[in-house]
Design brief:
heterodimer, A: 385 residues, mainly alpha, 15 helices, B: 316 residues, ABC transporter involved in vitamin B12 uptake, BtuC, globular
């Protein structure tokens, strides 16, 4: 029992010290552009926690990051690096938008789930080629998925601008490059009514919605699949040591193939919260970058699904805070992007250092234990080193 | 080749020389970054952060050129790339963190840093004012031949430098003690360590060379090609350069040939319109080619044996 608390403490030590170091490095960036870091952080905290709409906004911003972090984490657990979540969610959003616009006459309880399935399909389809080429040809998934991201942008531009552009946008100003509006039957409702019923009144522009609940359920499901099923066991075995897994009779290529498609499926959900609740149409300026943020989210959580919920909330906090410090303290919001990169670097570095110290400590303890055992040995314990 | 495509590219010889010249201009940044990638990977360190080092180099070289002139600007860009690569070396060589994770973090970091620095220094997040370029050079005599003129006149000196770097890199890697040691820590760091070679030092050297050259590649884009910094101007070229290095089988000459192929695809994607094919897909040509090349190259390509594997002395 005590051992468990020690290991929990050690696993939190990495992220917590990484966040502290990141905050300090972020302070240096603010000093470099002539701002008082303490004041900026104070503005960020009071802006974020001082008003109810900020809290709602943090949960809304965390929603796509939970999906994205889960998608990246499944890849990491299987020894794969899915940088392609970015492109996969563009395609998921496009597929969902198509089904939301052009499939007509269905009741909401069929249409909305169908649209979500289309989103999943988009993500899976865009994930298929990189993992197929990885398994069949050995092409490294990192570079192929990055290329697929660039191609996804081109595909989106083509479909939104050249094929499915909304031609009935009225006469006010230049038409936006966007698809027609998604039908009401495919829109995801906000949680505001529910929150009101339990006594929390948020302003009606807050877009916190039921995808948040789906994201939390997805985290539970990913935890269950990875840690409680034979498939998850094999997946983690492949990620930790592919040679040993292969020797133990696990078909590593098949597991990696399935794991990557599962990752793509979850990636397909990333953009839907924005698409089906906030925007209601697919715009060429649809939010970008969730796929990359998902990498930081997953690493900070050490790929733990419940940790991913927490780190998504933290990144939602940073993003919302980014708006606050831009508006109220005159600090460019990209400071939070810098913090994201610094968080990744420090969390992996600190974790590596702690891991090494723990291993050295365990070796040391083992050496003392073995040295103490044979009573005939007259040398001092550990003196043999 | 489709007849319309030839028409679109122009069939007369000056036009062909023009197209080749454009391809060579677009090859240059890829070549510089790919040569750097050869050094870091032959030393056993994968550098996915090339893209971030390029964008960092592009921004700081534009700032340097704006403030101190083009030559100083390019030097500052190269140093900026090297500083980013130093972060990569510290994290992945000294602390033995997963090299790909480190490289991805560097790309994120570089993106954020240049956005903030650009707002602070240029009062615009996305572009710099126009900056001066190096004086253009003409190749004597050859620039008089009309058919060759687009290739031989009005050249950026950095193009000549990049191509001259190919034999130099070959010589350094294959004919110097440094090159031998660098390759040995990429193939078998344990054996190299046993022979008294400082593995970490060699790997730092490889990573720093890649950062310098990636920064210079970014500098070429900003100072020489566009005469200004534009956000996102590297457009994935750091990753394409990595693919070129792999396709070139981890050798300088191979990297050059592969970079030329990608440079040609790049110039076609800008210059050519193919009937019935949407321009968005033509623009994606370099990315599609990268995937095709990676999928096809693996049959004959062989990475250094310890590429991407952190070296840990036992008992440490």
């Amino acid at each position: 029992m005590k051992r468990r608390w020690v290991s929990l403490g050690l696993s939190l030590l990495g992220p917590v010290s990484a966040l502290l170091i990141s905050a300090i490095l972020g302070a240096f960036v603010m000093l470099a552009i002539g701002k008082n870091p303490l004041q900026v952080y104070a503005v960020m905290i009071s802006y974020n926690l001082g008003q109810l709409d900020s809290i709602g906004s943090i949960f809304y911003r965390a929603t796509p990051l939970i999906f994205s972090g889960l998608a990246v984490a499944i890849g990491f657990k299987a020894g794969l690096f899915n940088i392609g979540v970015e492109g996969q969610y563009y395609l998921g959003a496009f597929f969902a938008s198509w089904a939301g616009v052009y499939i007509k006459g269905l009741p909401a309880y069929i249409h909305l789930p169908l649209v979500i399935l289309f989103g999943i399909a988009g993500g899976v389809i865009w994930a298929w080629l990189p993992i197929y080429l990885k398994v069949k040809r050995g092409a490294h998934e990192v570079i192929t998925t990055i290329m697929m991201n660039s191609i996804a942008s081109a595909v989106m531009l083509y479909f939104i601008h050249d094929v499915f552009m909304d031609q009935n946008q009225g006469t006010l100003g230049a038409p936006r490059v966007r698809m027609p509006p998604i039908q009401p039957t495919a829109r995801m409702p906000t949680m505001l009514g529910f929150l009101h019923a339990i006594g929390i009144d948020m302003p009606n522009y807050v877009a916190i919605n039921w995808f948040l609940v789906l994201a939390v359920l997805a985290a539970v499901a990913v935890y269950y699949v990875l840690w409680r099923t034979p498939f998850g066991y094999e997946l983690r075995a492949v990620g930790q040591n592919p040679q040993a897994a292969e020797a133990a009779g696990i078909n590593t290529k098949r597991i990696q193939y399935q794991a990557f498609l599962l990752s793509g499926a979850i990636a397909g959900l990333v953009g839907l919260s924005d698409l089906l609740t906030y925007f209601g149409y697919l715009d060429i300026d649809f939010p970008k970058g969730y796929g990359f943020s998902g990498i930081a989210v997953a690493l900070l959580a050490n790929n733990n699904p419940f940790g991913i919920i927490l780190s998504s909330l933290l990144f939602g906090f940073l993003e919302r805070g980014g708006l606050g410090i831009q508006a109220l303290a005159g600090v460019p919001r990209e400071v939070t992007t810098i913090l994201e990169g610094v968080v990744i670097l420090t969390v992996v570095t600190v974790t590596a250092i702690i891991g090494r110290q723990v291993r050295a400590y365990e070796r040391h303890m083992a050496a003392i234990a073995t040295a103490a055992e044979p009573p005939v040995d007259t040398r001092a314990p550990g003196g043999g080193q | 080749m489709h007849p319309d495509l030839i028409l679109a590219a122009g069939a007369s010889s000056p036009a062909i020389a023009d197209a080749v010249a454009s391809a060579i201009r677009l090859t240059t940044p890829l070549l510089l970054a790919a040569l750097g990638a050869v050094f870091t990977e032959r030393g056993g360190v994968v550098n996915i952060g090339l893209e971030g080092m390029m964008i960092f180099g592009a921004f700081w070289s534009a700032w340097g050129a704006y403030t101190y002139g083009p030559l100083a600007g390019l030097a500052i860009g190269a140093v900026a790339g090297a500083i980013m690569s130093l972060v990569h070396a510290i994290v992945s060589v000294t602390f033995r963190v997963d090299q790909i994770v480190s490289g991805v973090a560097i790309n994120t970091l570089a993106y954020g840093l240049v956005r903030v620095a650009s707002q602070a220094l240029f009062h615009s997040a996305t572009t710099s004012p126009s900056v001066p370029s190096l004086t253009r050079i003409d190749v004597p005599l050859l620039d008089r031949i009309p058919a060759l003129q687009p290739l031989m006149a009005n050249l950026s000196p950095l193009i000549v430098f990049a191509f001259a770097l190919v034999p130099v890199s070959w010589w350094v890697l294959n004919r110097t003690v440094f090159g031998l040691r660098l390759r040995s820590v990429g193939e078998n760091p344990l054996a190299a360590d046993t022979l008294g070679i400082n593995v970490a030092l060699m790997r730092y050297a490889g990573v720093l060379i890649s950062g310098l050259l990636a920064g210079l590649a970014g500098g070429y884009l900003a100072v020489e090609q566009t005469s200004m910094y534009v956000e996102g101007m590297t457009a994935g070229r750091g990753f394409v350069a990595l693919a070129a290095m792999i396709f070139g089988n981890w050798t300088p000459v191979g990297a050059m040939l592969a970079s030329l192929l990608f440079g040609l695809a790049d110039s076609l994607s800008i210059r050519v319109t193919i009937p019935h094919v949407p321009y968005q897909f033509v623009n994606s040509l370099p990315y599609i080619l990268t995937i095709v090349v990676l999928a096809g190259a693996v049959g004959h390509a062989r990475a250094p044996a310890a590429d991407g594997v952190p070296y840990e002395r036992s008992g440490e």
